[in-house]
Amino acid sequence: MTRLEGLCLSAVLFLLQSSVLPFLLNGLWEPDLWLTAVVISVLVFGRKTALALAVAGGLLQDIVTGNFFGLHLFPYLVVTLLTAFFMRERYNRKWLVSVLTVAAGSAACILCVWLVILLSGGRVQPAAYLMHYGLPQILMNCAAAVVLHHVLWNMKHEWEPRW
Description:
It contains 6 helices and no strands. It is an all-alpha fold. The chain has a single domain (3-155), classed as Arp2/3 complex 21 kDa subunit ARPC3 (Orthogonal Bundle), CATH 1.10.1760.
Protein backbone atom coordinates (compact mmCIF):
# COMPACT_ATOMS: atom_id res chain seq x y z
CA MET A 1 0.00 0.00 0.00
CA THR A 2 1.40 3.38 -0.93
CA ARG A 3 1.19 6.38 1.39
CA LEU A 4 -1.48 7.98 -0.77
CA GLU A 5 -3.59 4.81 -0.61
CA GLY A 6 -3.08 4.71 3.17
CA LEU A 7 -4.22 8.32 3.53
CA CYS A 8 -7.25 7.71 1.32
CA LEU A 9 -8.12 4.56 3.27
CA SER A 10 -7.79 6.47 6.55
CA ALA A 11 -10.00 9.29 5.27
CA VAL A 12 -12.69 6.89 4.07
CA LEU A 13 -12.60 4.90 7.32
CA PHE A 14 -12.75 8.13 9.34
CA LEU A 15 -15.80 9.40 7.44
CA LEU A 16 -17.60 6.07 7.59
CA GLN A 17 -16.84 5.47 11.26
CA SER A 18 -17.57 8.98 12.50
CA SER A 19 -20.44 10.13 10.27
CA VAL A 20 -22.13 7.48 8.17
CA LEU A 21 -22.36 4.49 10.53
CA PRO A 22 -23.66 6.45 13.57
CA PHE A 23 -26.32 7.94 11.30
CA LEU A 24 -27.39 4.58 9.86
CA LEU A 25 -27.00 2.39 12.94
CA ASN A 26 -27.44 2.71 16.66
CA GLY A 27 -24.44 4.49 18.21
CA LEU A 28 -23.64 1.57 20.52
CA TRP A 29 -23.95 -1.31 18.10
CA GLU A 30 -21.94 -0.57 15.01
CA PRO A 31 -18.90 -2.26 13.49
CA ASP A 32 -15.47 -0.92 14.37
CA LEU A 33 -14.08 -0.46 10.87
CA TRP A 34 -10.74 0.83 12.15
CA LEU A 35 -10.13 -2.29 14.20
CA THR A 36 -11.20 -4.53 11.34
CA ALA A 37 -8.92 -2.71 8.89
CA VAL A 38 -6.01 -2.82 11.33
CA VAL A 39 -6.31 -6.57 11.91
CA ILE A 40 -6.63 -7.37 8.21
CA SER A 41 -3.80 -5.00 7.33
CA VAL A 42 -1.50 -6.95 9.66
CA LEU A 43 -2.32 -10.03 7.64
CA VAL A 44 -2.04 -8.40 4.22
CA PHE A 45 0.59 -5.65 4.53
CA GLY A 46 2.61 -6.38 7.63
CA ARG A 47 3.26 -4.90 11.05
CA LYS A 48 4.61 -1.48 10.03
CA THR A 49 1.59 -0.48 7.95
CA ALA A 50 -0.81 -1.90 10.52
CA LEU A 51 0.85 0.01 13.37
CA ALA A 52 0.54 3.25 11.39
CA LEU A 53 -3.17 2.55 10.82
CA ALA A 54 -3.62 1.60 14.49
CA VAL A 55 -2.08 4.85 15.74
CA ALA A 56 -4.04 6.97 13.26
CA GLY A 57 -7.30 5.14 13.95
CA GLY A 58 -6.82 5.08 17.72
CA LEU A 59 -6.06 8.79 17.94
CA LEU A 60 -8.90 9.78 15.61
CA GLN A 61 -11.40 7.55 17.40
CA ASP A 62 -10.37 8.89 20.81
CA ILE A 63 -10.65 12.49 19.63
CA VAL A 64 -13.95 12.07 17.77
CA THR A 65 -15.79 10.00 20.39
CA GLY A 66 -14.63 12.12 23.33
CA ASN A 67 -14.19 9.12 25.62
CA PHE A 68 -11.21 8.40 27.84
CA PHE A 69 -8.01 9.11 25.95
CA GLY A 70 -6.47 5.77 25.05
CA LEU A 71 -9.74 3.86 25.02
CA HIS A 72 -9.17 3.04 21.35
CA LEU A 73 -5.45 3.68 20.90
CA PHE A 74 -4.22 1.19 23.50
CA PRO A 75 -6.44 -1.73 22.39
CA TYR A 76 -5.66 -1.13 18.70
CA LEU A 77 -1.94 -1.28 19.40
CA VAL A 78 -2.29 -4.39 21.57
CA VAL A 79 -4.41 -6.17 18.98
CA THR A 80 -1.99 -5.19 16.20
CA LEU A 81 0.99 -6.58 18.06
CA LEU A 82 -0.85 -9.76 19.08
CA THR A 83 -2.02 -10.37 15.54
CA ALA A 84 1.46 -9.74 14.15
CA PHE A 85 2.94 -12.14 16.70
CA PHE A 86 0.51 -15.03 16.19
CA MET A 87 -0.82 -14.81 12.63
CA ARG A 88 1.70 -13.30 10.22
CA GLU A 89 3.31 -16.53 9.06
CA ARG A 90 0.04 -18.45 8.74
CA TYR A 91 -1.94 -16.17 6.43
CA ASN A 92 -3.28 -16.96 3.00
CA ARG A 93 -5.73 -15.16 0.72
CA LYS A 94 -8.89 -16.76 2.05
CA TRP A 95 -11.50 -14.44 3.52
CA LEU A 96 -12.39 -16.95 6.24
CA VAL A 97 -8.95 -16.54 7.79
CA SER A 98 -9.54 -12.77 7.90
CA VAL A 99 -12.96 -13.21 9.51
CA LEU A 100 -11.66 -15.58 12.19
CA THR A 101 -8.69 -13.32 12.92
CA VAL A 102 -10.98 -10.28 13.19
CA ALA A 103 -13.20 -12.22 15.60
CA ALA A 104 -10.22 -13.03 17.81
CA GLY A 105 -8.89 -9.48 17.51
CA SER A 106 -12.29 -8.03 18.39
CA ALA A 107 -12.50 -10.21 21.49
CA ALA A 108 -9.01 -9.09 22.54
CA CYS A 109 -9.95 -5.46 21.89
CA ILE A 110 -13.11 -5.75 23.99
CA LEU A 111 -11.11 -7.20 26.86
CA CYS A 112 -8.56 -4.38 26.56
CA VAL A 113 -11.30 -1.73 26.53
CA TRP A 114 -12.87 -3.36 29.58
CA LEU A 115 -9.48 -3.31 31.31
CA VAL A 116 -8.91 0.38 30.46
CA ILE A 117 -12.36 1.30 31.80
CA LEU A 118 -11.76 -0.77 34.93
CA LEU A 119 -8.32 0.77 35.58
CA SER A 120 -9.64 4.29 35.03
CA GLY A 121 -12.17 3.87 37.83
CA GLY A 122 -15.25 2.94 35.83
CA ARG A 123 -17.61 0.28 37.10
CA VAL A 124 -18.42 -2.34 34.52
CA GLN A 125 -20.10 -5.66 35.11
CA PRO A 126 -18.14 -8.17 33.02
CA ALA A 127 -20.97 -10.50 32.00
CA ALA A 128 -23.39 -7.72 31.07
CA TYR A 129 -20.68 -5.80 29.22
CA LEU A 130 -19.57 -8.80 27.21
CA MET A 131 -23.11 -9.89 26.31
CA HIS A 132 -24.56 -6.44 25.61
CA TYR A 133 -21.56 -4.85 23.91
CA GLY A 134 -19.00 -7.56 23.15
CA LEU A 135 -20.96 -10.19 21.25
CA PRO A 136 -22.72 -7.77 18.84
CA GLN A 137 -19.39 -5.98 18.27
CA ILE A 138 -17.65 -9.23 17.32
CA LEU A 139 -20.45 -10.25 14.95
CA MET A 140 -20.55 -6.86 13.22
CA ASN A 141 -16.77 -6.72 12.88
CA CYS A 142 -16.84 -10.17 11.28
CA ALA A 143 -19.45 -8.97 8.78
CA ALA A 144 -17.31 -5.92 8.01
CA ALA A 145 -14.25 -8.17 7.62
CA VAL A 146 -15.85 -9.96 4.68
CA VAL A 147 -16.05 -6.68 2.77
CA LEU A 148 -12.78 -5.13 3.98
CA HIS A 149 -10.82 -8.29 3.19
CA HIS A 150 -11.45 -7.85 -0.52
CA VAL A 151 -10.85 -4.09 -0.44
CA LEU A 152 -7.53 -4.35 1.40
CA TRP A 153 -6.33 -7.34 -0.57
CA ASN A 154 -6.90 -5.40 -3.81
CA MET A 155 -4.74 -2.58 -2.40
CA LYS A 156 -1.76 -4.93 -2.00
CA HIS A 157 0.92 -4.50 -4.63
CA GLU A 158 2.45 -7.85 -5.40
CA TRP A 159 5.71 -7.60 -7.22
CA GLU A 160 6.74 -10.17 -9.78
CA PRO A 161 9.82 -12.14 -8.77
CA ARG A 162 13.00 -11.56 -10.72
CA TRP A 163 14.70 -14.70 -11.98
